[in-house]
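From the shared-data thread, chain only:
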Amino acid sequence: MSSMSAITHFRRSKNPVIVDGYTQPGARPNQLAIGDDAIILIQIDNPTGSTASPSGLIISAGTSIVRGLSITGFNSSGINLTVPGQANIVEGNFIGLKPDGQTVGRNVVGVNAQTPGNLIGGTTPARTQRHRGGTTGLSRESGCNANRNDLGNYIGSDASGTLA
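Structure, as tokens:
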């Protein structure tokens, strides 16, 4: 199975999934309190910007976990958390950044949460994530309060976490 068909299959899953890029040998989560030194080795990319794939990952089941990925090049959302799913965890990713953590690979929206109660980012270094190169880092649909939806995200920053 090619990597593209595996990604397409995952994108359409209606069951909870765990996609953990940190299981790739040599990858590791961020260890810095300020900034990001994560090593991310798996990229989900839409290199041509094709509208046939408007979102990178579409998660509707709830209780899914996505961590340790670089997600780039999508015309809608890098990750789209849709109804009815809630209680998803999205942490430790480079959204809109290539695996080197520096090169912009634009998404229009980093993460679009259409449901409440998701954990996007986190308060420990390993859970923080970086959003860059998009019009919007995080988007919440009407009715999705900020409760647990977005914590510990560097939006529009460089790897040091101090510069735009």
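Residues 3-155 form one domain.
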